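Box 3.1 A note on notation
Throughout this textbook, protein chains are presented in two layers. The first layer is the amino acid sequence; the second is a token string describing backbone geometry. Keep the layers aligned when reading.
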Amino acid sequence: MFQFIKGPWISGEDKFLQKHPQLKGHLEIHKGGKGFVGILGDTLPLKVHRQAAEKTLERAKKAIRSSKWDLIVLDEVNVAVNLKLVSAQAVLDALKNLPMHRFVILSGRNAPKSFISRADLATEMRELKHPYNQGELALKGVEF
């Protein structure tokens, strides 16, 4: 799993891996993000987020080409594209000549139409209501 936004904190995915040490070597989480972009006190220049996302995509490309993994998750890559941290074309280029039986999941809101066209399976989950819009921060154990 390559995380394009998450990075400087312990996420639910990290806690899952801690609770299941038998998965070490079978599941790896690569934190590439620098945190939320432009919200929740983020003061990093956009350039820093962009460089982190580009580096994460390069690392993901190597995993995609490797024979080590059958499933690769590009966590929140749709958000990274929407925020213009990486281009949709760069992500699609990483998926060119995808080896047989290699599955790549692109997650996050607002998937570009080009991703949906390229996908074998596309699912949309969308927010109808969220406590953040009423000023509440994410809830531990529910959202992270």
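The chain has a mean pLDDT of 91. Residues 2-118+129-134 form a domain with the Rossmann fold fold (CATH 3.40.50.300).
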